[in-house]
Write a structure and sequence with these properties.
The protein is an alpha+beta fold and 515 residues long. 41% of the residues lie in helices and 25% in strands. It contains 18 helices and 23 strands. It has a seven-stranded mixed β-sheet with strand order 3-9-10-16-13-12-11. It has a five-stranded mixed β-sheet with strand order 20-19-21-22-23, with helices on both faces. The structure holds adenosine-5'-triphosphate (ATP).
């Protein structure tokens, strides 16, 4: 465990030291669970997004993309269930600093009264033997009636207080019942706060005319509300998909583990609209397709597994996570959900507009079923970054830190290094940079001994180093060093571009999806 924690700490500090991820507003000591992508991080993130987009949109003729606004009409979140289902009344214990859902604390208390009733029943059953009439006992025994009445009164009061948003009374109830923190036994509670995972904001300038809005907690709804627009204008035929990448916001109660769980994060989602009744087959198909996409990056099949959900969300008839082995264990990386017709039907109801598809083959109109693939871009970033960071012991006993990012995703593909800062070598190196920069991201580095420069590029994850030396002046060749193997080969300058392009080509990497 300690080892895992150490490894994770290394990941976080490496991400900062090499310009991948910074804590947000660090000069003000940061903001909890909010991070900024730095100069290299932004490139890695962009490349992951593009790798996903190409695989999902460009490579599927029946999938198109959109970019919906983060702000949406507030009724969207009524229809999606987020307004009602994302609300938790929270209370903190001041001594243990543990946070609880106030309603769960109270329900647990009532649960204990129920346990007392069970005890009375058992006792009586023993006393009366065969003559025991449980139903009658439950209806007449004064002690049982007392517990029942008390429990019912508590739940009623809690329900009414929550309904009225009278959170002070919810707290009063906890105090009257002398409910203690299960961890510390302390009854020192803060006030109860209503906690919706959605971030609220206001649209409009004046208090009277402004409208309460939410920052979207998922990108999916932007797709559902545009379903008909896209279907009609794109003349899409079922089955077809709509993809989108973008920011989502969740006021996570417990946000930790670096960029694994953030309050502002980015999702890459695709909603696939299918004929009712075919959703199960499509769900299985998308599970396979998405896993292949992950495997194409070469991070080891043993680091992925499916977790099928037994307890399903209100909208789903099947759901699975693709889990990845993060430094802190296997955790959800992507979700594949068979969402039925829940979302479109619900929007039909709330918007009083038909969101249906006329199926020319069936000669029938219906609300399509939806299979969703939903992956967190930041989580994917963390999966790749943490997996790629390696400490290696070399043959001569020295160690090196290397970030073995898949070359297709690396922020910088090649570093061009003149062996020395004189004799015309920098000029040749500069001209190589000027040529290659049209095709992919390259960098120039002339500071320090070449060995140190190699180490620096290893640590930042650059897959190739191109070294210009004195022989270059005569043979128009350079040394091409591969980050992972450290193998060096002599290559003509004119051949560099094609050689590197081959290694970083999305086509070559993505083709592994099809295998
Ligand atoms: P979790 O159980 O980890 O909270 P979830 O089941 O609520 O996740 P979904 O609503 O299915 O997540 O969202 C789809 C994907 O979005 C997740 O698989 C994950 O990669 C990503 N994601 C969700 N919440 C966060 C977050 N707070 N920070 C970063 N990524 C997130």
């Amino acid at each position: 465990m300690a080892n895992q924690e150490d490894q994770f700490k290394k990941v976080i500090s490496h991400a900062k030291e090499y310009g991948y991820v910074f804590p947000s507003s660090e000069i003000y000591d940061g903001l909890s669970a909010v991070y900024d992508y730095a100069q290299n991080g932004v490139e890695l993130k962009r490349n992951i997004r593009e790798y996903w987009w190409k695989a999902m949109v460009q490579m599927h003729e029946n999938i198109v993309g959109i970019d919906a606004a983060i702000f949406m009409h507030p009724t969207t979140w009524k229809a999606s269930g987020h307004v009602d289902a994302f609300n938790d009344p929270l209370i903190d214990n001041k001594d243990s600093k543990k946070r609880y859902r106030a309603d769960v604390l109270i329900e647990d208390y009532v649960g204990k009264l129920d346990a007392k009733i069970d005890k009375e029943v058992k006792k009586a059953a023993k006393r009366f033997g065969d003559a025991f009439d449980k139903a009658q006992f439950l209806e007449t025994n004064p002690r049982v009636l007392g517990y029942k009445e008390k429990g019912a009164a508590i739940l009623k009061r809690m329900g009414q207080s929550l309904e009225k948003e009278d959170l002070a009374d919810v707290k009063a109830l906890i105090e009257e019942l002398e409910i203690a923190c299960p961890l510390s036994g302390s009854k020192n509670w803060t006030d109860v706060k209503q906690f919706n995972l959605m971030f609220g904001t206001r649209l409009g300038a004046t208090a009277e005319s402004s409208m309460e809005l939410y920052l979207r907690p998922e990108t999916a709804q932007g797709i559902f509300v545009n379903f008909l627009n896209v279907q009609k204008t794109g003349r899409m035929k079922i089955p077809f998909g709509i993809a989108q990448t973008g920011k989502a916001f969740r006021n996570e109660i417990v946000a930790r583990q670096f960029i694994f769980r953030m309050r502002e994060f980015e999702q890459m989602e695709m909603q696939f609209f299918v004929r009712p009744g075919t959703q199960k087959a499509w769900y299985e198909q998308w599970k396979k397709t998405r896993l292949q996409w992950h495997l194409s990056l070469g991070m080891g099949a043993e680091n992925y597994r499916f977790h099928d959900h037994e307890k399903l969300a209100h909208y789903a008839d099947a759901a699975a996570d693709i889990e990845f082995k993060f430094p802190f264990g296997f955790k959800e990386l992507e979700g594949i959900h068979s969402r039925t017709d829940f979302d479109l039907s619900s929007h039909e109801k709330y918007a009083s507009k038909k969101l249906q598809y006329f199926d020319p083959e069936l000669n029938e109109r219906y609300v399509p079923y939806v299979v969703e693939t939903s992956i967190g871009l930041d989580r994917m970033f963390l999966a790749i970054f943490s997996h790629s960071l390696k400490e290696e012991t070399l043959e001569n006993g020295s160690t090196r830190t290397v970030l073995q990012l898949p070359a297709v995703l690396a922020p910088t593909k090649a570093a061009v290094l003149p062996l020395v800062k004189k004799d015309g070598l920098p000029e040749i190196a500069r001209s190589i940079v000027a040529d290659l920069t049209w095709d992919f991201a390259v960098t120039y580095d002339e500071k320090d001994a070449v060995g140190r420069r190699y180490r620096r590029q290893d640590a930042v994850g650059t897959p190739f180093c191109i070294t210009v030396d004195h022989d270059t002046l005569n043979d128009d060749s350079v040394t091409l060093r591969h980050r992972d193997t450290m193998v060096q080969t002599r290559v003509k300058i004119a051949a560099l571009k094609d050689l590197i392009k081959e290694e970083i080509s999305m086509k070559n990497w993505l083709q592994k999806c099809a295998q």
